[in-house]
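Let us work through a complete example step by step.
Step 1: write down the sequence.
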Amino acid sequence: MTKILMQRFPNSNKIIRHSSDYVAKQIKAIYNAVGGSMKICIWRASFVNGIIQVVVLLLILVCHTVGNTHSINCSTLDDPLPIPHKLHQPGDLVIGEIVSQVYFHYNSLSFKEQPIHVLIDEPIYYSTKMTYKATLSLLSSQHRFAPNFNCHKKSNLIALIGGCISEISTNVAIISAIHKTPQLTYGSFLTTEDDKRLFPFLYQMVPNEAHQHKGVVKLLQHFRWTWIGLMAVDDDKGDKFLQKIVPMLSQNGICYAFIVRLPKYSYVDEYIDMLIKQWESYLTVIERNVNVLLIYGEYPSFRVLRILLFLAPFLPMPPINKVWIITSQWDFASLSVQKIWDIQTFHGSISFTIHSNQPKGFQKFIQMVRPSWFKGDGFIQDFWEQAFSCSLNVSKWEEKEKICTGEENLQNLSGILFEMKMTGHSYNVYNAVYSVAHTFHAMYKSHSKHRRLEERDRLFFQNVQPWQVHQLLKRVSFNNSAGDIVHFDDNGELVSGFDITNWLMFPNGSVVRVKIGRLEPQAPQGTKLSINDEQIVWHHSFNQVLPLSVCNENCNPGYSRKKKEGEKFCCYDCALCPEGMISHEKDMDACVKCPKEQYPNKDQSQCTPKVVNYLCYKEDLGIILTILAISFCLITSLVLGIFMKYKDTPIVKANNRMLTYILLISLLLCFLCALLFIGQPGKVTCLLRQTAFGIVFSVALSSVLAKTITVVLAFMATKPGSRMRKWVGKGLANSIVLTCSLIQSGICTLWLSTSPPFPDKDVHSLKGQIIVECNEGLPSMFYCVLSYMGILAIVSFIVAFLARKLPDSFNEAKFITFSMLVFCSVWLSFVPTYLSTKGKYMVAVEIFSILSSGAGLLGCIFSPKCYIILLRPQLNNKEQLIIRKGDRI
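Step 2: predict the structure and record it as tokens.
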């Protein structure tokens, strides 16, 4: 299929223009390529500002009532309000285009006099009243205004392209729906969700506007802008925009500081009043602490804003140094009178623009275009004269004007007046014409193949109806010359996305638009918006640093937001996180707790893994306690060896030698039990720690008690007639040891069978540490074990204390008294110390108590005997013992 090349010829307001004859030739070539022969007419009519007379509306009503295909003598009808600019080329099929270029300057309606309309070369503001008139002209004769009547049967309007502004598009859609003519808008969005039902023949060459709203929110979130200003056009569309965007902003944590409504357009006699009112809005924008402005509106509103910014330097008003977030309906274009106006205010703006691409050959065509190519095209003539400030009509030339040579180059125009690249709106018109052309192609191919070629073409072109184009247009899908796929969804909206554009405005008037990202509504969640931050150029006032736009300073990590009473939720104070909680990001709503195995750092800005806390062999405390335990084991073994070597000496045989061996072995095991408390707790060590310690120490204390009772009974038995002799012997001592030990063993067995100790982690007791410990299961059982040992120690101490005055050579009660005093002192101080410490130090306290109490028993009981055995052997004999006994008697 032959490609159609669209051109863009903006006038002073930079609206899209097309080379009618060029497009006609290209579309005709399509059908010539498939063996067809037809004529295509592209008719463009401008709509002008003015007053639609009542007769026009009545005529429309009459025409609709009479019928759709009545033939009349068009020469008998005069046009009550002729359009000064239009271009019509006769053909079998007509594609109509509605563009905006020529305007009437008029005052507000008073109904007291005939409205005066004066055509001027510069527009003031848009008005859509003449849209009806221009659209009806497309449905009328080439030279006569006869809407709804077929004056030239060969002029068959089968599609409309336009317009760019929503109100214009909907006005055209009213008429196109009546005639069942498909209409393709190239820049406007449907104003309501019901518009598709109201205007079923309306196609949008843009995506659904809801996608743009979501993209705006994602853009603000991307840059963390939470405090913005809203500016919206003061009409129904602006109202609906605010109704949709404000809740979306709030739901995504974004607040607006103010809402400024921009006028849509104004009558000339109301223009000064409008400007005075807008100064209040200007002051609002300047004074508020907002660096980002989200602005919504269409081209007429942009002109109002341009004038306000132009007048600001002449008054003591500071410039607006903000980041402008602009919706796709805006266009940075100028009237010829505005082309010298500085627009540095918009430097660095970010806008959602209609996706565009560059068709092949477009740049070359733009560089070669000349006004002489378009004879009779008033659109091009006006644009050329206004853009280059010259006159093409020598007969109307005035001395103050210069004559256009016709060889002026469009590349020499400033970017604010004319861009050399195809913009989004131009690209949409390009795709719209191609969509209609592809639809014709599909219709032609489906036409009967059994007819002769000439008859087939004649019948085809005579019978093509707009509703037939509509039926196929909604299913059209093709690749254009720029490589993009063009097709519509079920709602008649183009399946496409938006370009994110960064606008660069230079003092010399040149404008550069840089694509910095893309909004793809069809992309997976999380990838719909893509932005290259490094490409963005910000306004000069921000020194190329990412602007901040927040109500107040951000709350740094370690703080959380605290709502200010009476303010919006984006305005807040910062409160330090409570103890044990953190905030790891800026502006967190609430502080959070760290996971169990982590703890807050000093700044409470992040969680740090906790240090594992247990008494290990590698640290100094563990090494010292290990050395002490092993040393006491060696000393105990040495004492046991000495006693076994000198087992037949009187001092060893005295007070039951077997009890001495049991006591020494139990003390040895006590010192070894201390090693169970060192190292990372395991399942086995937790089961053995307290139970082994309790049983072994109970055996030791039982042996001490038995030795003490034996001494007492021995002296009582020496008295004449004493009945105690039958109790003196090994049987009583063994029974005491066995009974006392079995009781402790029973307590430990009950403990292990009900709720045994197990390895556990304590993440709460010590800040920043995880205590790896043995959970005692039932703490009451642990204290029962300690209490029973305490009872044995106290009983032993009392008995030994009562026997302390017996002869030293016959008993060791005096030394047992000292040993029990040490033992009781150690364990009485153990309880409060143990309860007041945590982690490895609690374990160290218990180990120290075991070692010190065991060492007390070993030292106090056996050191005097070892002294005599090793250093005073002369005292270790029976005679010496008898002499000392006599002395004592």
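Step 3: interpret the result. Confidence is low (pLDDT under 50) at residues 1-76, 117-124, 885-889.
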